[in-house]
Design brief:
The structure holds 2 protein chains of 2 kinds. Chain A is mainly alpha-helical. In chain A, 40% of the residues lie in helices and 5% in strands. In chain A, helix 2 packs across helix 6. The chains are: A mainly alpha, B mainly alpha.
Chain lengths: 259, 420
């Protein structure tokens, strides 16, 4: 048993080492304390709501979020706007619907069941409006980038003047966290860009944190219930394992063999 | 197989059993005499059965919600993750379950290598196991294509393109596999079909694997033949059942940790980007469990020979019972083999590591050395070692080795040992 456990730990250690060195990018991302990390990690409700505000007022003019619906904003484990608030948010968007009985497409105010309205008709239109670069859909963006939340958080604050010797084309910007350092999105955030209704100071750092938290929730809307269920499941398994261990000892005590 | 005729107690039972001897089978399975000295490395057979069934059950549920179409696959996976009740749980169990399955199968295979479980009379069990392992790789590879992310698409492109290395007919075969001139919707639908089929083939082979096992019975850490049943054995139920159950629960704790707390760590971030035939990812890497073979593939400069080397690395395992010339099964009594065994373990881990790295400079050199060593181990070290090695005395029975403390110190009555 002891030998067995020792070997298992050795293998896990080696495998873990192998995996870590896998992430070869050597940039140190900016760090902040994310409330949703850890065994009991939960989203900071206020931060999610502020993050939604940053998304709608800043990001959403170019970035779509096609997998989210307005109803998600009122769901448990998310920003938890009240249903009335979520309805009001939905209604503030014009949604294309149809065809009606006359065969015509029409627009109407959004409903809870509608998906987030996209800023462009299609990818080509998005590219045409952004110098050929498609602003990626943000629904799962956090999971689609190697550095995850730390990467997005850093990127938003990573705009710098290019070092001497690097020339940038028109519409290309220098960002110290971007892969290859060249990014087609201009710096979007500046202190006081949005006005938070809860009085939080809208510094670049604060807005980056809020919107990244919002993106994390968008990518993993069930993160909170996952953490809660995970804790219960693991505690249950540990207790059951202990019980089975003693049953096993008892059964094997009939035989003169170590188990 | 049974050592004694089983007669059901009830009349109905007897009537049924005379017509279909299911009760005899059940009796055989519960009474099955198992060596009592099996250590925890032997619990992975049960764990693997659990993994297979978990994949099948979660896979069935996923298949009810997944849409195998190039335009809808990615969306349908997000639909599962967001809107299907506990869809995220089912999908994360299935995705991490593949990794857990391979973790367990590698332990299972390396256990067999250490204790010589592949040797006579267990060659057929071993070869069926290799076929299962091959099918697992095929199923895992095709399953990884289904979410239709960037790694899905480009992984499929790279792997299917390997077939183009075949002289003359290569290109034709690739077109036939794709169902077109590139990886596209026809490729996705056939991969889905095969991904659904293969687990049931594996299930059938698992039955054969266990059947073949029940003919000679389990090998054991001492590696000697034992009388069955005897004081060296215990009935499968309850002794092995409870022990396997205990080990399975510990395994499930690790499994649960991945599913609930780091569900994406074993995957690649690029697979959350929808497949785009016009954008190639910077590094195309397979899943971790295929990396050693990927390293072997890339360490050969010629494409065809690379493919041959990669396939040979797997198929050479099937020849193992005949490449290993030693009559002694367990590495416990083979001091030299034991050292080479651990060198092989490190070699495979090194191959896995360089498989994840870009194939250039030092990494490529290391990959080449490790590849050469991998084949040397099987083609030179094992045959020679069996003939030259001075093995330790082997005990006559399990009871003797148990009473004598560590098997290494067991005072064997036959000093000449089974070797020579």
């Amino acid at each position: 048993m002891k030998n067995f456990l020792r070997s298992i730990f050795l293998i896990i250690f080696l495998a873990g080492f192998q995996y870590n060195s896998n992430a070869a990018e050597k940039v140190e991302y900016l760090k902040t304390d994310w409330s949703f990390k850890g065994l009991f990690g939960k989203f900071d409700r206020a931060s999610l709501q502020r993050g939604y505000q940053v998304y709608t007022e800043v990001c959403s003019s170019c970035h779509s979020m096609k997998y989210l619906s307005y109803r998600n904003l009122a769901e448990k484990g998310g920003p938890e706007f009240t249903e009335l608030q979520a309805k009001a948010i939905a209604a503030s968007f014009e949604v294309k619907d149809g065809p009606n009985e006359d065969g015509e497409m029409f627009t109407r105010p959004g409903k809870l069941s509608d998906k987030f309205v996209m800023p462009y008709e299609n990818i080509k239109a998005a590219q045409a409006a952004n110098g050929g670069a498609y602003p990626p859909d943000m629904s799962v963006l956090v999971k689609a980038r190697g550095g995850g939340v730390d990467y997005i958080y850093s990127l938003l604050q990573g705009y710098e003047d290019p070092p001497a010797g690097i020339t940038l084309d028109d519409g290309v910007y220098y960002n110290k966290y971007m892969y290859g350092n060249k990014i087609k999105m201009a710096n979007q955030l500046s202190d006081g860009l949005v006005e938070y209704s809860d009085g939080t100071k809208a510094s670049v750092e604060q807005m980056s944190k809020d919107v990244t938290t919002f993106l994390m929730w968008a990518a993993e809307p069930h993160l909170e219930s996952r953490h809660q269920m995970g804790f219960k499941a693991i505690v249950y398994l540990i207790i059951l394992t202990i019980l089975v261990y003693f049953s096993m000892k008892r059964i094997w005590s009939r035989i003169k063999t170590e188990v | 197989m049974s050592d004694h005729e089983y007669i059901p107690k009830s009349k109905v039972g007897k009537w049924f059993n005379d017509r279909l001897p299911l009760l005899t089978l059940a009796n055989h399975l519960t009474d099955y005499p198992t060596p009592k000295n099996l250590n925890y490395w032997w619990t992975f057979g049960g764990i693997l059965t659990f993994c297979l069934l978990t994949q099948i059950v979660t896979g069935l549920v996923l298949a009810m919600h997944y849409i195998a179409h190039a335009d809808m696959a990615f969306d349908s996976v997000e639909h599962i993750m967001r809107d299907v009740n506990y869809g995220w749980l089912i999908r994360y169990i299935h995705a991490n379950g593949a990794s857990m399955f391979f973790l367990a199968v590698y332990i299972h295979i390396f256990r067999s290598l250490f204790y010589g479980s592949y040797k006579s009379p267990r060659e057929i069990i071993w070869i069926i196991g290799i076929i299962i392992y091959l099918l697992m790789m095929a199923a895992a590879f095709m399953g990884y294509v289904l979410p239709w992310g960037q790694m899905s698409f480009w992984g499929a492109t790279v792997i299917t393109n390997l077939f183009s290395a075949i002289p003359l007919v290569g290109e034709g075969i690739v077109t036939w596999l794709w169902g077109g001139y590139s990886v596209d919707n026809p490729t996705l639908t056939r991969f889905f079909t095969l991904h659904y089929l293969i687990p049931f083939l594996i299930l059938g082979l698992v039955v054969l694997h266990i059947w073949a096992l029940h003919v000679p019975g389990n090998n054991n850490p001492v590696g000697i033949d034992i009388k069955k049943p005897s004081k060296d054995t215990v009935p499968f139920h309850p002794y092995i059942v409870i022990k396997d159950g205990f080990a399975l629960l510990m395994f499930m704790i690790v499994f649960a940790f991945f599913v609930f707390y780091t569900p994406n760590i074993l995957g690649h971030a690029d697979n959350y980007i929808e497949a785009d035939p016009l954008v190639t990812p910077a590094h195309i890497v397979p899943e971790w469990y295929l990396l050693p073979f990927y390293a072997i593939l890339r360490s050969v400069p010629d494409k065809l020979l690379g493919v041959v080397a990669m396939l040979a690395a797997i198929f050479i395992l099937a020849a193992l019972p005949w490449l290993d010339t030693s009559k002694i099964r367990s590495a416990v009594f083979r001091p030299l083999y034991r050292q080479f065994y651990w060198i092989l373990v490190v070699d495979v881990l090194v191959l896995g590591y360089v498989g994840a790295m870009p194939a250039e400079g030092l990494y490529l050199l290391i990959a080449r050395v490790a590849t050469v060593y991998y084949f040397l181990h099987f083609l030179v070290v094992l045959p020679v070692l069996g003939l030259k090695e001075r093995t330790l005395p082997v005990p006559l029975s399990i009871t003797e080795s148990v009473l004598g403390g560590s098997p290494n110190l067991a005072t064997a009555k036959n000093k000449e040992s089974l070797n020579n």
